[in-house]
UniProtKB/TrEMBL annotation:
Gene3D superfamilies: P-loop containing nucleotide triphosphate hydrolases. This is Adenylate kinase active site lid domain-containing protein. Residues 141-176 form the Adenylate kinase active site lid domain. Keywords: Kinase, Nucleotide-binding, Transferase. GO terms for molecular function: AMP kinase activity; ATP binding. Belongs to the adenylate kinase family. InterPro entries: Adenyl_kin_sub (IPR006259), Adenylat/UMP-CMP_kin (IPR000850), Adenylat_kinase_CS (IPR033690), Adenylate_kinase_lid-dom (IPR007862), ADK_active_lid_dom_sf (IPR036193), P-loop_NTPase (IPR027417).
Length: 211
């Protein structure tokens, strides 16, 4: 997919702002690290493309209506539309003189190439977390369905094993939190998204952190 003809390329000047991406496997701590970046570097504005896309759909914007037409048919939102969404929000951030931390896009090599036609990416943070560490972390997560309270056997266990602290009701494990489901998601990530690491490494903007 390519961007619409005539769209100017956004480039954050070094004294005004930067475009930064964060990559990493599902459950690898992108949300946690993003929070730390935003706390330590308040000039950054966080843009989670999934959250922004859902907001556009709720608000019924032109992009939201177009995206919903694909989503209602079970289709992926096209790259060109996702890039329009990113650019629209990025323009607002740059106009405010802030920097942008982009989370959730690009997910594929093709999307990264297409995004480069529109944005100059200054830095890419890659979180390299061992698969089995993530499997253990996620598979220890249990929830109380009625309230949405989340527990973890390692660092946030319930007071009584298998029971919600407030109601005493039984906790459940979501199907996609079970070890076999987690491994499938991580394998899909490796197949589709890992080439991004090589792409940005060649461009000289990648910084990998092992955990």
């Amino acid at each position: 997919a390519t961007c619409r003809p005539g769209r100017r390329k956004l480039s954050a000047a070094s004294d005004a702002g930067h475009f930064m991406l964060i990559l990493g496997k599902p459950g690898g701590g992108k949300g946690t690290i993003s929070g730390k970046v935003l706390k330590d570097f308040p000039m950054f504005s966080h843009l989670s493309t999934g959250d922004v896309l859902r907001q556009h759909v709720r608000d019924g914007t032109d992009i939201g209506v177009e995206a919903k037409s694909y989503m209602d048919h079970g289709s992926l939102v096209p790259d060109e539309l996702m890039i329009r969404l990113v650019v629209e929000d990025a323009e607002t951030v740059i106009q405010d003189g802030k920097s942008l931390l982009l989370d959730g896009f690009p997910r594929t090599y093709e999307q990264a190439v297409a995004l480069d036609e529109t944005l100059d990416v200054d830095l890419v943070i890659n979180l390299d977390i061992p698969t089995e560490t993530i499997v253990q972390r996620i598979s220890e997560r249990w929830i109380h369905p009625a309230s949405g309270r989340v527990y973890n056997c390692s660092y946030n266990p319930p007071r009584v094993e298998g029971k919600d602290d407030v109601t005493g009701e039984s906790l459940v494990q979501r199907e996609d939190d079970k070890p076999e489901s987690v491994r499938r998601r991580l394998a899909a990530y490796d197949e589709v998204t890992s080439p991004l690491v090589g792409y940005y490494e060649e461009k000289g903007v990648l910084k990998t952190f092992h955990g």
